Amino acid sequence: MSSKPNVIIIFADDLGYGDLGCYGSEINMTPTLDKMADEGKKFSNFYVSSPVCSPSRASLLTGCYPQRISFGTFDGLRVLFPGQGIGLSNEEKTIAKTLKESGYNTKIIGKWHCGDQEEFLPTNHGFDSYFGIPYSNDMGRQVKIKDYIPNDSSLHKITEWDRPPLPLIRDKEVIQEQPDQRSIAERYTEDAVTFMRENSDNPFFLYLAHMQVHLPLYAAEKFVKESQNGDYGACVASIDWSTKVIFDELKELGIDDNTIVIFTSDNGSRLQNQGGSNGDLRGGKGQTWDGGQRVPCIIRWPGKINKGEETDALATTMDFLPSITKLTGGKLPSKKIDGIEMSDLFFSNENSSKRDSFVYYNEDELEAIRYKNWKLHFKKQGEIINELYDLDNDIGEKLNLYDNNKEIVKKLSNLADEYRKSLGDKSLNIKGKEVRAASKIDNPKPLTEFDENHPYMYAEYDKGERG
What we know:
Radius of gyration: 21 Å
CATH topology of the largest domain: Alkaline Phosphatase, subunit A
Distance between the termini: 42 Å
Number of domains: 2
Mean pLDDT: 94
Largest sheet: 10 strands, mixed
Number of strands: 20
Structural class: alpha/beta
Low-confidence stretches: 145-160
């Protein structure tokens, strides 16, 4: 067994703040994740840096606000699409790179969504190997929807039927097109178990990024039959089952006490009444109300974190990189990051945070800022609003205290201006002074192309949901 702890990050997709039993759900079955909270530390003030996937994922990997690494928008799009010539810069030092330098074997399984061209794939960003779908599971060739146009970019004026087949990748090779999504969670989990067995005597980093509960909702029939919340509940149960397999395998290998397991989500749940819940939070995916960016987070490390710990300390996915790097004896990136080293908070019984502020960007526009318990909103969907909330006493952002707290408004406004100088604010035509470029290539193309003679899977269960 290695003297350094293994690190596993389990990243759900579109899972809301209220979707787990330990966060208040009464309809989703999550016994494993509830037990994980009982055996570890549960965070109630935990955030991701974007309410949508590509920016949020790059942020976790780099410890940066998406705007710092030019990952706030992608040629006018909110997330990356198949065949775009934009990706995470190879000059960014990801958490996988820092751990690899410290002697870790590294693997990503599941959703990447930081660029699908060969130059941008995970094996160029510190991961020894990759198995998964490189972007959202709704970006394949699932069903025929006439005249669907995701945006007004001429690059993407294509119908759903004209989208390239969904690729399943091993390292840099497409090994299957249009995989049966009902079995993906099982395949991902099996690959994770294999990786853990092969590396049980060496320190390893496993980044398991589930496709669930992103639309379209697919789960094995067993979970569908048992669900009290339709296909959504089945997908949540699938994630919970996968987590149980991970824990069972860690115990079987005798490395449970030497493994940090982190569970969280890339953004809040959607608002289309499809089964998801953000609890008492306002708003959801794609929005800078807390429902879009405050997410569940549970960290378990037997013997290091007291069982049943709960904390309301402010923390973010950006803080993982510096905290894990310190814990494992690695070297931080030389370039500026936004994560704060909080290994005591994450990996011990400490419950105070070194972070007192957090900014909410929608694409490249600064819409809100949090300082301690106060959250000040500047605008929503391009419209100026003046709203101030005390999140300690008003988690749902219902009672606007703007008019009676001018000094607090002034303090938060000044703090926001400092962030704007560094990160920019498109709505005010401010260019950030500490922003780095993403990578771009000429003549990109999708990883797959439709072949009318290929036996693609278009089964009866195919769904037209997109999210």
